[in-house]
Amino acid sequence: MKLHIGIDDTDSPEGMCTTYLGALLYREISKIAEPLDLPKLIRLNPNVPYKTRGNGAVAMSFDAKEEDIPKIKNLVLEIVKELSDFSHQNTNPGVVFIEGDVPKKLERFAYQAIWEHLDITEAENIAEELNAEVHKFRLGRGIIGALAAIGHPLKVFTYELLAYRTREFWGTVRKVSKESVFAVDYLTYPFTYDNVDLSKGSVLITPHGKDPVLVGIRGIDKNKVMWAFENIIFEEPIDFFQIYKTNQNTDDHLRFKKIGELKPLESAIVRGKVIKKYWEKGRHVFFEICDESGTLRVAAFEPTKGFRKYVRMLIEGDEIIAAGGVKEFNGVLTLNLEKFYPIKLAEKITYEKPKCPKCKGTMKSKGKYLKCKKCGYKMKKVLIPKRISRELKRKIYEVPPDARKHLSRPLVLPTAEDKILDVLKLKK
């Protein structure tokens, strides 16, 4: 009998991690039943306000004997109850069990949980309709992610190997050899990626919170991910590790929308014309675009660092495709820019004074006239237009690795450009 298990919302900013709990359960249940695949790590809507870190839910599927199913369910509920961080008021775990085949309708719900802001009632309704067994702790908001994690088909996926710390090290600085991480990245990139930020010389695989994760190594090749893990030098003990199949770095969250259709707490790709060139406030860079349905403020926030340089190159009249999360910022609907693609660049013109027609000297403005500095020749002021070459190219610009959301697909990965180029019908 197939048994599908979904779990979410067991952690908090103060500790625990749903992947840690899921990995423990996967190890224990595998002693009782046969795993059908690796466990799944499904990243949900990155814009919801009550998420902890990456807004990830986990799911796993087993071929279990009918008499073992009650034992497995009890084990899951006991572990969730024991390890969830109930000290935090926003920890509201949810567990879902589905027996047999996963209903096709749950796939649609999974994408809704990535694209939209769902509430518990919507999850309860589909669970009842599909005869899913639901267990809520406190408010039970985690049933949304638990259902979505079971339902996500992972037609496109990546891998993440998560190694976990022994308990005595939780909450302390992670001890991993920086040099070994850079060496491994050099040998495995791009089959593993976002291990380091070369521009800053920093390591990205180690989180900074109080959770049990020591490192997370991402990649598109499971064997390369494992090789990378085996060749990194760890300076503290590892409790255990688990490889997850995941929708991370797939751009799952992006859908094309008209500006007038946008709502807060969703993500989108929009196409528009720049109608107000950049301005800056608190190291954030803003500009405005429009299409036939409305206008939109776009922001490259301070953490995107060097990415803002390319945003500053945009001028009024440029046509672009922009992708990112939609939020209210100081009361204004704003696209938090993740990547953009210049479709058509406006002409940038400057005006210069001509050379002196008599001696080729430099002319100086004198009211309505020009006067040659060298020979004194005077003439009526005439300025010559000159076209300035634009530095922006017809390519996708993306934020740096340490500012990238879990779902955003880096350009180094295969088909990374598809969703933006689909808007142009120029899919490669």
Automatic annotation (TrEMBL):
Location(s) in or outside the cell: Cytoplasm
Reaction(s) catalysed by this chain, per the record, are:
cytidine(34) in tRNA(Ile2) + agmatine + ATP + H2O = 2-agmatinylcytidine(34) in tRNA(Ile2) + AMP + 2 phosphate + 2 H(+)
One Gene Ontology BP term is: tRNA wobble cytosine modification
Its EC number is: 6.3.4.22
Q: Which UniProt keywords apply?
A: ATP-binding, Cytoplasm, Ligase, Nucleotide-binding, tRNA processing
Record domain OB: where: 270-343
Q: Name one GO molecular function term.
A: ligase activity, forming carbon-nitrogen bonds
What do the Gene Ontology cellular component annotations say? cytoplasm
Q: Which residues form the TiaS-like TCKD domain?
A: 5-136
Root EC class: ligase
InterPro entries referenced in this protein's UniProt entry, alphabetically: NA-bd_OB-fold, NA-bd_OB_tRNA, TiaS, TiaS-like_TCKD, TiaS_FLD, tRNA_Ile2__agm2C_synt
Ranges for domain TiaS FLD come to: 140-253
**What is the documented function of this protein?**
ATP-dependent agmatine transferase that catalyzes the formation of 2-agmatinylcytidine (agm2C) at the wobble position (C34) of tRNA(Ile2), converting the codon specificity from AUG to AUA.
Fetch the NCBIfam families from UniProt. tRNAmod_TiaS (NF040849)
Member of which family? Belongs to the TiaS family.
What protein name does the entry list?
tRNA(Ile2) 2-agmatinylcytidine synthetase TiaS
The species this protein belongs to is Thermococcus argininiproducens
Q: Which gene encodes it?
A: tiaS
